[in-house]
Amino acid sequence: MNKYFWKKISLLLGLSLAIIISGCGGDDKEEEKDSQAENETNLNVSEEMNYTITGIEPGAGITQATEKALEGYENLSGWEFQTASTAAMLTSLKDAYDNEEPIVITGWSPHWMFAEWDLKYLEDPKGIYGDVEYISTIVRKDLKTDMPEAYEILDRFHWEPEDMENLMQQAQEMEFEEAAKKWVEHDDNKERVSEWTEGLQQVDGQKIKLVLTPWDTERSSAHVMSQVLENQGYDVTLTPVDPSVMIQAVATGDADASLAPWLPRTHGDFYDAYEGEFEDLGENLKGAKIGLVVPEYMDIKSIEELEAAD
After folding, report:
1. What is the distance between the alpha carbons of residues 119 and 214, in angstroms, rounded to a whole number?
2. Where are the alpha helices (DSSP H) in 49-123?
3. Exposure of 189 by Cβ count < 10 A (0-12 exposed, 13-18 middle, 19+ buried)?
4. Rounded distance, CA 190 to CA 178, Å?
5. For the segment 229-277, what is each residue's pLDDT rounded down to a tens digit?
6. Of 250, 238, 248, which is closest to residue 269 (Cα–Cα)?
7. CA–CA separation, 56 vs 62, rounded Å?
8. Which fold has domain 133-291?
């Protein structure tokens, strides 16, 4: 009896072990199938986009960062980086989004595109696009002596990403100048604006030159500052320039100030090239960000999930 009993137990244990091993093997095969399916999906998406990243102006800091990403990520080998205007990029994004097609763009926030469409940043494991940034205010040397009131207003200026995005959203329906004027005069913002100018004397037509980059973010801050300075009696000139020229213009005294440098990474190279030749008044907005952006409906989370073209 004992002999048969133990033999039966041995058979049962052997059968159970076989089932367990078989089950584990099945799980491995299922995981392998899932992984293959995911790779095939990413490959199909990459092929559907023709291995193309849609960018903005060639001189933009985010363009430089993307060129570094193409070199830093092996899986972006063979990808094409199309640079154009910001308007052209947004048009491509709208067309793709309306048709629920895949697209990868160079994106940044604050920007009204995030209020308009459901978008997300791709994770950047290599940290090429950097962490959350800030936008700084820089002025030419001696501005404090030449224009003490303007210097003080520029030094006090600070607002939140939500403020900028609201203004940018309004500016899609009107000129930036009009949108900025409405923002400055709005009851919700009057207290903050008065903090920038409190106790400062009016001037009589003193000229001041501000330079900005051609992004809607910088159009927003520049036009708000223009309105505030004009209300104080200044004759303001706004000049959009390439990011590589923006800091140089302030450093050489060709411009009085800029509220546009994204730091420490986006415009960091331009900043470093002229550091010490201008005065940095510190951040005017915290929480800025750049990176590769895709519509939320795309089943992809990281830059590393994109497939190489060759």
Report:
1. 22
2. 61-72, 86-98, 113-116
3. middle
4. 16
5. 999 999 999 999 998 899 999 999 999 999 999 999 889 999 999 999 9
6. 248
7. 8
8. Dipeptide-binding Protein; domain 3 (3.10.105)
